[in-house]
Each structure stands twice: as structure tokens, then as C-alpha cells.
Write a structure and sequence with these properties.
With 420 residues, the chain is mainly beta. The protein has helices at residues 4-28, 34-44, 389-393, 396-411; strands at residues 64-73, 78-87, 97-106, 109-117, 124-125, 131-135, 141-145, 148-153, 156-166, 196-212, 215-231, 237-243, 253-263, 273-283, 286-290, 292-297, 302-309, 312-319, 325-331, 334-353, 356-372, 379-382.
Length: 420
């Protein structure tokens, strides 16, 4: 049983942390006239969105922001991954610039092509909605919104529309569902960890075309996924699993699972680190989040992830028998090959409440990834967010109260929080 002194210390820690974080919010928040607030409300009502859909890097230095999208074409046994990044847009540095990497995975292998420039002036992004575009001097280009994607990099071009279905917290068309910040309300208050992370669309339905060389594929209602990162640096090591195309499954299922050793505070030459992880599953629009996670991940080829929360348990097992593809990731010097990713992972997913089976599903088109430095050995870990951030982040009542108040203040034009 917790003693009174221990309980008082914990409460004091949470209060102190909350005061510090709210001070961060005041430092980052700008006052805007009510007319601007009304304009923002109009813009945000135009398309389904999660928190942090907007661009955080306005005038930032020692900063990156990156977007990852994946289109899965089950009938073609093909995946298209689109990776966009910008570094240090606020001032010219050695790593300032914009990069795009495009990966097309088919049964006969994965093709990777990319374009890069040190010029940030052609990049444009909306501050509160998902809208990103860039035109390279070579004529290559990319653009993305929550409902439309177009681009041409190397000999790969794409154009498709997306109907957003599920965000991070439930279906977009469900008035009872709430879209959450993937890292909780703490991610609204500035650079407390590095990087921050947000799932933008757990599931959308894409219709359009993909051309690779002289081969063009048309598709309709194909599963689509999107997420983003931003901050000072990527984690020191991580693993990641994503799937929203399951075999012979009549239910609508979307899975994202990830674990990382990240910097707790994104300041200083040697910031402290902690191991964090999450599993998020949507089943027929119902959100099942698992913040308590343990894992065993090999340097390549095998992933086992388990979690529990509120009487539920989840078990994920994935393998792949290909060599994967090199994926560009943020580093202190800019984008570089730093991860390996396969789009043909074999995955099983089980969710249970005691003896009750809520979901038992499998896929042969899961996306699986490892990145960073594992030290040449398998990584066995558990999510161990450091205090006092853990107590604050896992306090559901506090999360709802603070998030609601921050959102209301910004909607009224009282605050301006980048990205939200």
C-alpha cells in the first residue's frame, strides 16, 4: 500500500510537472485576434484530422519534421511507401534541406528512389492541417493532404485520392470518437521529448494510379496509412510494425505498434533516455490502446510484442524472410540510411479479455522495421517512461481535461500552438 508521504510526493511531482509544462505552453503560445480563431475553425472543419496534422517547423533550427505514408495493394501484392522530410527551415545549416524517398515493394523485390535539395524555399506546409508540398529543381515533386496525394520521383509517379476512415482514437465519422495525440497531451507543449510522434490516419481508402517505369496500376479503395515525426533527433534505436490489410478478415482492423529508446528532453549534448512503446489497434472503429508493452525483437527477421491494459491483452508475432529495404531516417547530419523495412511481413494478431477472444487475425502484407543501433544483439525490453512524465502522461482524467482546454483555447483564438 502506498504511504501518505509517498502519495504526497507523487502528487507534488505531478503538480510541479504540470506547472512546468503549462509554462512551456505559455512560452510557445501566441495571442491571436478572434478573427484569426474563426478562420482556423473554418479551415479545420474542412477535412478529418488528428492533433498534430499541421506543420511544426515554422522558423525552427536544429529541427526536423518527417511524414511517412503507406499504400497497400493486396491484389497486386504491392506496397508504396512515401517518406518526406525537412531539416532546419529557419536558417541555413549544414543539414538544411528537403528530401523524398519512394519505395515500391513487389513480389520480385523493392525499388527505392529519392530526390533531395538543400533549398527549403520551395517547401510549403499548412500550420494546422495536413498539407505538405515541395517542387525540386529537377522537376520532381510531391504533395500530400488528408485526402489527396500526387508526386513524381525518379521513374515512380502516383496520384490518388483518400477517403480518411480511422484516425487515432476512432473513426472520423463517429461523433462520439475522440482523436488523440499519439504521445498524449504532453506533445502539445513543446520539445519535451525527441522525437514526437503522431499517427495521422490508421486507415484510409485510396483510389487512383501508381506508375513504376512503364507499368501503371489502377486501384480502388486500397488500404492507406500515414504518420509523422518531428523534433531534434530520431531515437537511438527502435522497432515498428504497421498493418491494415489482413487476410480473410471480415472486420475492419488497423494496427500500429512501436518501441524506441528516445531522448527524454530534447536539449543538451547528452539528454537522458527512456524506453517507450505503444500498441494501438482499431477494430471496427473501436480503439484499443496499450501503453504497457514488452517486446523481443531480433536485429532482423522476428518481432514479438505483448501488451496489457484495462483487462485486455494483446500478442503480436511477425517474421519476414526477405532482406528488407534500406529506409532513410533523420540523423544529426540529415537524412541517411538508418533502418531496414519489409513490406511482406507475416503477422499474427490476437486481442483477448481473459478467455474471450476479441480478435484473431493474420496478414502476409505487414510492414515491419528495425532501426538504429541494437549493438548486434536482440532487444528485449519493456516500456519504462520516466517519472514524473509517466504519472502525468498516464493520468487519463488529466489528459482529457488539459487536451480539451488547450483545444478550446486555440479554437477561440486565445492560443496558437504549432501543429495542432
Amino acid at each position: 500500500m502506498r504511504s501518505g508521504a509517498t502519495g504526497t510526493r507523487a502528487a507534488t511531482m505531478r503538480a510541479s510537472a504540470l506547472l512546468f509544462l503549462l509554462q512551456c505552453a505559455q512560452l510557445r503560445a501566441l495571442a491571436w485576434p478572434s478573427s484569426v480563431g474563426a478562420r482556423l475553425r473554418t479551415l479545420r472543419a474542412a477535412a478529418p484530422r488528428t492533433p498534430h496534422s499541421g506543420y511544426h517547423g515554422q522558423g525552427e533550427v536544429d529541427f526536423f519534421e518527417g511524414w511517412y505514408s503507406r499504400l497497400t495493394l493486396p491484389d497486386e501484392e504491392t506496397s508504396l511507401a512515401l517518406i518526406y522530410a525537412i531539416f532546419d527551415p529557419g536558417a541555413r545549416t549544414a543539414r538544411s534541406g528537403v528530401e523524398a524517398q519512394v519505395l515500391v515493394a513487389r513480389a520480385d523485390g523493392t525499388r527505392s528512389t529519392r530526390a533531395a535539395t538543400a533549398d527549403c524555399s520551395r517547401f510549403a506546409a499548412a500550420p494546422h492541417d495536413l498539407s505538405v508540398r515541395n517542387a525540386f529543381q529537377s522537376g520532381e515533386r510531391f504533395s500530400m493532404t488528408s485526402t489527396k496525394h500526387e508526386g513524381s520521383i525518379g521513374d515512380v509517379s502516383w496520384a490518388f485520392a483518400v477517403v480518411p476512415a480511422v484516425g487515432w482514437g476512432g473513426r472520423f465519422d463517429d461523433p462520439r470518437a475522440r482523436q488523440y495525440s499519439t504521445a498524449g497531451w504532453l506533445s502539445s507543449l513543446g520539445p519535451l521529448v525527441s522525437p514526437h510522434y503522431q499517427v495521422l490516419q490508421s486507415l484510409g481508402y485510396a483510389t487512383g494510379r501508381l506508375r513504376v517505369g512503364d507499368r501503371e496500376v489502377a486501384f480502388s479503395d486500397a488500404p492507406f496509412y500515414a504518420e509523422k515525426n518531428w523534433g531534434r533527433a530520431f531515437p537511438r534505436r527502435w522497432w515498428w510494425i504497421q498493418c491494415n490489410a489482413f487476410d480473410d478478415c471480415e472486420r475492419e482492423v488497423a494496427l500500429t505498434a512501436t518501441g524506441a529508446t528516445r531522448s527524454l528532453v530534447s536539449v543538451g549534448p547528452s539528454p537522458p533516455e527512456d524506453d517507450v512503446a505503444l500498441v494501438g489497434i482499431h477494430i471496427d472503429g473501436v480503439f484499443y490502446p496499450f501503453p504497457e508493452v514488452d517486446w523481443d525483437v531480433e536485429t532482423w527477421g522476428a518481432w514479438r510484442v505483448g501488451g496489457s491494459y484495462d483487462g485486455l491483452t494483446v500478442e503480436i508475432r511477425a517474421t519476414c524472410d526477405d532482406g528488407g529495404a534500406a529506409v532513410r531516417v533523420p540523423t544529426p547530419e540529415g537524412m541517411a540510411d538508418g533502418a531496414r523495412e519489409s513490406y511482406r511481413g507475416t503477422l499474427t494478431l490476437a486481442v483477448r479479455r481473459g478467455a474471450e477472444v476479441i480478435l484473431d487475425a493474420s496478414s502476409s502484407l505487414a510492414c515491419v522495421e528495425v532501426g538504429g543501433d541494437y549493438g548486434g544483439a536482440a532487444w528485449t525490453g519493456t516500456s519504462q517512461m520516466a517519472e514524473p512524465l509517466r504519472s502525468v502522461a498516464y493520468d487519463v482524467g488529466l489528459e482529457r481535461a488539459v487536451s480539451s482546454r488547450l483545444a478550446a483555447a486555440q479554437e477561440r483564438g486565445w492560443l496558437e500552438i504549432p501543429g495542432l
